[in-house]
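Working notes for the structural subgroup meeting. M.R. asked for a predicted model of this chain before we commit to crystallization trials. I am recording the input and output together here so anyone reviewing the notebook later can reproduce the run.

Input as submitted:
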Amino acid sequence: MTVDSTAARKPRRSSKRAGAKKAAGEPELVQLLTPEGDRVEHPDYSIDLSPEELRGLYRDMVLTRRFDGEATTLQRQGELGLWASLLGQEAAQIGSGWATRDDDYVFPTYREHGVAWCRGVDPTNLLGMFRGVNHGGWDPNENNFHLYTIVIGSQALHATGYAMGVAKDGADSAVIAYFGDGASSQGDVAEAFTFAAVYNAPVVFFCQNNQWAISEPTERQTRVPLYQRAQGYGFPGVRVDGNDVLAVLAVTKAALERARTGEGPMLIEAFTYRMGAHTTSDDPTKYRRDEERELWEAKDPILRLRAHLEREGHADEAFFTALEEEADALAKRVRDAVRTMPDPDDMAIFDNIYADGHALVDEERAQFAAYQASFAEESN
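Returned structure, recorded in token form:
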């Protein structure tokens, strides 16, 4: 896999100079694969993938979508307390996840299930927190993939601080922070931009603009395209077709390499669409039209790559059939894992708070133990 880019090396004064194509009524963005599955060229970003790599991207998107759909169903069945679906955002996540190196560090929100898949995090580990049996479910340092962050936007600051540390250590790795269009209005994100720019931190800010911050459209978040905000902080920004896995991979790979070589931060706005609800507690029919979703379903990232694979003869029916069977097996494994997750130890909440213990925590532990014991006494 080879990627070439010159666009990430200096800020752009306008989107026209970025060389992005613009169709009627559409925003300017980097695109390498059209919604119909046609391969196109871009003046600043290019990528050369083997048929095997293209099939790999397709496989990861399909399996991620199947896992995500299974998790949504499990929540509806009462097995999970909540779930944040990534439906429609598979290309943004798989493409950017593929661009990272093992020694890069990823700071996600609570929706980066596809990135977690790319980083080697077992998908069943993502479900423990949503079932309420743990506080995360995986060791962040095993895969350089931080625990999910529920507080909106705070992970951008965490990523910037970590990146500043990476630079001080003299490492050539990079950091990537994910957030949504709604989080771009948070003060934490603005502060992260400031510190990243001033300290030339090796961090890539990856905004998945799915156009709906819960129930508020993007135009209520900003008066300019989100990627242009980077200019005010002194580093470059670019908007990429977030439903084009090839373009996302090329742009993110170039941005991460730019960070690794000491050229500082960059903002990527992946222009995509949340085809489902914000979470399973949300009803998107209350605030958006069915016609809007139907328009974006025609730009489905998985169907787009499948059309390309079939047109170029890079995948046959046997491949798609085998992948469907693999997806079924993954769904069954997820169902079985969730339904057999053990309940947590009632007293575990007091563990790992202070390294050397604390008198107040000991007192609270004793009080809670007595409270729990009172139920057993009442039943006798």
